[in-house]
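User: hey, got a sec? need Myelin and lymphocyte protein folded
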Amino acid sequence: MASTTSADVLPTGGRIFTSIPDLFFIPEFVFGGLVWILVASTRVYPDHPLGWVMFVSVFCFVFTTLWFFLFLCGANQSSIWPALDTFYHFLAVVFYLSASVILAYITVLKGWGITINSGGTVSLVPLIREGLKIYRLDIAAVVMSYLATLLYFLHAIFSAIRWQRA
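Assistant: Yep! Here you go:
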C-alpha cells in the first residue's frame, strides 16, 4: 500500500511554477517590491508608522525570496515544511494587513493636507507639486500593499489546504 509523503505534497525545482500556492511567489515579489520601492521613494514621514510599513515590505520580500529558493532547491522535503509554509504566509498576511491599514491612514491624512510634525503637532499643508507627487506615490503604494496582502492571503489559504492533504 502506497503512502503519501511530504515529497508528494511540496513541489521542488521547476514544478513550483506550476503548483497553485507556489505560483503566487512571483506576484508576491512584484507587488511586495513595489510597496518597498514606492514608500522608499517618498519621504518616510511620519517615521514610526511608515517605518513599520518599510520593515514589513523588506522583511516579507527577503523571506519570500529565501522561501522561494528553498523550494526551488528542494530543501523543503521534511514533513514540517507544509506547516511552516502555512505559518509563514499567514504571518505575512497579518504583517501586510497591518502595514496596509497604516499606510492607507497616513495617505488619507496626506490627502486632506494634514501632516504630523516631529513634535506631534498637526499642521495643514496644501497639496501642490511635490506634495501631490508624493501623495500619488502613496496611493500607488497603498494599492500595491493591499494586492500583496491579498496574494499572501491566497497563498496562505492554498498552503493550509495543501498542509491538510499531507
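Quick note: Confidence is low (pLDDT under 50) at residues 1-7. Let me know if you need anything else on Myelin and lymphocyte protein.
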